[in-house]
Amino acid sequence: MSGTESIRVDLGVIAEMVTPGTKVLDVGCGDGALLAWLTERKGIDGRGMELSQQGVNACVARGLSVIQGDADTDLADYPAGAFDYVILSQTLQATRNPRLVIEQLLRIGRHAIVSFPNFGFWKVRTHLLCRGTMPMTSCLAEPWYSTPNIHLCTIRDFVDLTKDMGLSIERGLAVNSDGGSRPIRGAGRLANLFGEQAVFQLARG
Amino acid sequence: MTMSAEPENPASAPDPEAGASIAATAGKRALLGVDAPLRLDSGATLGPFTVAYETYGTLDSLKSNAVLVCHALTGDHYAASTHPVTGKPGWWGDLIGPGKVIDTDRFFVICSNVLGGCMGTTGPRDLNPATGRPYGLDFPVITIGDMVRAQGLLLDYLGIETLFCAIGGSMGGMQVLQWASACPERLFAAVPIATAARHSAQNIAFHEVGRQAIMADPEWRGGAYLDAGTRPRAGLAVARMAAHITYLSEPALHRKFGRRLQSRERLGFSFDADFQVESYLRHQGSSFVERFDANSYLYITRAMDYFDLWEANGGSLPKAFEGTKTRFCVVSFTSDWLFPTAENRKIVHALNAAAANVSFVEIETDKGHDAFLLDEPEFHSTVSGFISSAWAARQKAVRA
Q1: Distance (Å, rounded) from C-alpha A21 to C-alpha A38?
Q2: How far is B261 from chain A (nearest CA, A)?
Q3: Does A47 contact chain B (CB < 8 Å)?
Q4: Contact yes or no for B327 and A60 at CB 8 A
Q5: pLDDT at A187
Q6: Which of helix, strand or coil describes residue B109?
Q7: Which pick of A30, B223, B312, B395 has the fewest CB atoms within 10 Å?
Q8: Is A88 helix (H, G, I), strand (E, B) or coil?
Q9: pLDDT at A45 over 50
Q10: Does one domain contain both B59 and B121?
């Protein structure tokens, strides 16, 4: 298992939030970088779900417990309360029903950790304002016609949704690609402007 | 210290296959069910009975490194050794061996011929002690559960309490699931491949075609062909031909044969094997007859048809795996239409619902169901990764 290599900036922030020795499900785990890192460094009991078959095969070949599955449909198979943390990194915006997916995360896990690209980031706003075309940044690298992202939101949109769902935000961080992060406070107006990505730790209210 | 798991068996019986028509004498034998006969799912009892098996590698001093390889419908225990009848290399020789996916430098590998088989384990072509003649249809109907119980007795005989891993494809995968469900405390890791938790109506239908082909052959003689010194060759060959098609895929058949003609320039306007694919199937049928017993084919296909882990658990597959600590790796192949990905995924869903530790990979290939027997590098690398990490966890558990 190669969990010693450095991991993506937002994954590092997520990894910080996970208590050692806990049971973790990583939904949309990609090639398993975060799971491998958490298994090696924090001794977690980790499972993964990944849509792409190449991702799954890579994970299993490196010794991780990962199944091929779709966050929109396959989370329903897991029993309630099976995990301490359920992680959804950079995947929420690509799901068909983000609200239902978040409900499932907190049915399966005591905590959910969700990261997503912030559409309220100032570069995204100025891109649309000045150029009048769909914004493309390092977090939103695909043009509109080929992006998997169908439910983009801003940090404020997300905070509003958690309120509407009656969830409690245990932690919220705005993250930039240089690795800098700042806590998201209140309605998150500042973070919404200066955060390129957001990472939230949620619990049932 | 390591020890060889080859206990002396003073109760070892003389070859029970005297008079059998297919020579199958290589490999190891264990006489089981001596003290108490095996109680079968049908209610009948069997015993004493013989189990033929092969082993590869060495059992470690803690007896923690045993891997049970479960064979498919027409497979046998010669998983990694030369077949005594065909002279061909073992059917999983690519996977089992020093430094291979199932590394015999590390693991003690056991593969036994299933109950009802015809390669040395007691089956319908063996002598019925009650009559002194081959069992034929007097042999009791057996199930996947019975096969696994017989394997359990073999492990007792070898002094092995828990398996590090049970692995197998197709009917072998059914045995792996049965192991996981019936004896989870004896199983650390499970690799069911290209299989199902119950046989589908379509698969029962294909089996019935095969059985009817055998029984329609006048040489079958109500199952008592060995008494008459004959065998239903034509019927068994047709059964194999029909089944063989289900092990392949349309693209694989097209790639291999297309509409190419066999040893001729133009159509023969006859019913000879004009097409290469016909010639190939005829060869598959006729060579199969040389190594397999027709009644065994009836009994083993029946065992697969009867397999239903839903039914056995009151209609709930997750119940079959409730509280399991076994770690699973389920594997399917994209072009397998006999045990398609959807069937394998049902197993995965049930394991998830039981909060089991499960991996699931679908391997991209056009080789159909038979892919689990073939050189598929991605299949081998994922299974190898799973086994290595499970072995690391097993050693950690043993040390603790």
Answers
A1: 9
A2: 38
A3: yes
A4: no
A5: 80
A6: strand
A7: B395
A8: strand
A9: yes
A10: yes
The per-type count for chain B, helices as H runs and strands as E runs, is 10, 16
B327: its two tokens: 């770690």
Tell me the longest C-alpha to C-alpha distance in chain B: 73
What is the ipTM metric for this complex?
0.84
Based on the fold, state whether residues B105 and B242 are members of the same structural domain. Answer: no
Cβ contact A77–B358 (<8 Å): no
- End-to-end, the C-alpha distance of chain A in Å comes to 37
Domain-embedded: residue A158: yes
Cβ contacts of B216 within 8 Å, gap of 6 or more: B235
- State the pairing for strand pair B59-60/B2-3: antiparallel
Q: Give the pLDDT of residue A8.
A: 80
* Smallest Cα distance from B362 to chain A, Å: 7
User: How far is CA B218 from its chain centroid?
Assistant: 29
- Do B232 and B175 share a structural domain? no
Longest CA pairwise span in chain A (Å): 48
On whether residue A48 sits in a domain, the answer given is yes
**Segment holding A25, helix H or strand E:** strand A23-27
Q: Is position A81 within any domain?
A: yes
Last residue of a domain, one of B303, B321, B336: B303
CB contact under 8 A, B359 and A60: yes
CA A96 to chain centre: 15
Q: How confident is the model at residue A7 (pLDDT cuts 50, 70, 90)?
A: confident
Within chain B, which residues score under 50 in pLDDT? 1-24
Domain count, chain A: 1
The answer to whether residue A67 scores a pLDDT higher than 90 is yes
**Cα–Cα distance for residue pair A184/A117, rounded to 1 Å:** 14
Measured CA to CA, the distance from residue B121 to residue B133 in angstroms comes to 17
Q: Which residue has the tokens 């937002």?
A: A10
User: Residue A172 belongs to a domain with what CATH number?
Assistant: 3.40.50.150
Average pLDDT, chain A: 93
Q: What is the pLDDT of residues A9-43, one digit of tens each?
A: 888 999 999 999 999 999 999 999 999 999 999 99
pTM of the predicted structure, to 2 decimals? 0.90
Question: Would you say residue A4 lies in a domain?
Answer: no
**In terms of DSSP bridges, do strands A83-89 and A23-27 run parallel, antiparallel, or are they unpaired?**
parallel
The pair phi, psi for residue A38, each rounded to 5°, is: -65, -40
pLDDT for A5 equals 57
* Residue A36 structure tokens: 């491998």
Range of the domain at A43: 9-118+153-204
